[in-house]
Design goal:
Number of strands: 15
Number of helices: 10
Shape: globular
Largest sheet: 7 strands, parallel
CATH class of the largest domain: Alpha Beta
Length: 321
């Protein structure tokens, strides 16, 4: 198979691109390299391009030149706070990129796509969340991911597009020290940065109706997420459709337990700090992952300890370079 991976120099994209190469697929990465790094994928050809601002004709030409069979689409913006400040730009980048890509795929005769979506489409939903839960995003980032899904669904009804949209929960860890998450946007890298600065990691609220009073979340290893993309690409239904799938472990871990694991792995003696609740934080959010298992046989393999340990090893490796 010959696969175009947009955003393939980014955190999850690079893990997926490397897995594809390891199993013998031809991979072409398209990435603007603003947040992605060429160092993550030195052996893979990269075209430096912003998908949202590129013309569909240029993308079509790339697909034809490289004889692309399928697309995995990661490229996009993912900072919630930034999306609130720049909503129009987020729609331009995240929805515009899907539109340009679909135009190019239709023209080039490429009929398979796996789309990187997010559990942010569920908004403030709580508890065990299945794919048929209401989609009520509470910020422009989540709204653009939902709009991307809807556009792909519409395209699958207009021409023979076989698609899947993967809604990730909380991704962390590193499958290789070179590939770790270098952006302080998620809990683990944020806590590592705080520890490095001598600041106690803060838990927002310890009075929830949970086992230890802190929020419960579904944390999934980035290697599991990458493997899910390959499993879904291989198992796309034969009929045109957009299959929506959760990607998580189906198991909840408290924020207190996660932060304590981060402190332990890093060797820090800093105490935990507790702040007030943040608006919009549900007590518990855990993905129901039966649908992806039924379709592909995929199940997450790594534990929370694996996630934290591999993230710490990656941070040490990258800082030592």
């Amino acid at each position: 198979m010959r696969v175009l991976v947009t955003g393939g120099a980014g955190y999850i994209g690079a893990h997926t691109a490397q897995l594809l190469v390891a199993r013998g697929e031809y991979v072409l990465v398209v990435d603007d390299l603003v947040t992605g790094s060429r160092d993550r994928i030195p052996e893979i050809p990269v075209v430096t391009l912003n998908i949202a601002s590129a013309s569909a004709n240029d993308l079509e030409a790339l697909m034809v030149q490289h004889r692309i069979d399928a697309v995995i689409h990661f490229a996009g913006q993912k900072q919630v706070a930034e999306s609130v400040q720049k909503p129009a730009w987020y729609y331009e980048q995240n929805v515009g990129s899907v539109a340009q890509l679909l135009l190019a795929m239709e023209a080039a005769g490429v009929h398979k796509i796996v789309f990187s979506s997010s559990a942010a489409v569920y908004g403030e939903a709580s508890g065990a969340i299945a794919e048929d839960a209401p989609t009520l995003p509470i910020n422009p980032y989540g709204a653009t991911k939902l709009a991307g899904e809807q556009l792909i669904t519409a395209a699958s009804r207009a021409w023979p597009l076989r698609a899947a949209s993967l809604r990730y929960f909380n991704v962390g860890g590193a499958g290789d020290p070179r590939l770790g998450d270098t952006q302080a946007l998620n809990l683990i890298p944020i806590c590592f940065d705080q520890i490095a600065a001598g600041i106690s990691p803060t838990i927002f609220g310890d009075d929830y109706d949970t086992s230890d009073g802190t929020c419960i979340r579904d944390y999934v290893h980035v290697s599991d997420v990458a493997e899910a993309h390959l499993a879904v690409l291989d198992a796309l239904p034969a009929e045109p459709n957009n299959t929506v799938l959760n990607v998580g472990t189906g198991v909840g871990t408290s924020v207190r337990a996660m932060v304590q694991s981060i402190l332990d792995v890093s060797g820090s003696r800093l105490p935990l700090a507790v702040g007030g609740r943040r608006t919009g934080d549900p007590a518990a959010v855990v993905g129901v992952v039966d649908r992806i298992h039924d379709l592909t046989g995929w199940t997450a393999r790594y534990s929370v300890d694996d996630i934290v340990r591999s993230a710490w090893e990656s941070r040490q490796y990258l800082e030592a370079r």
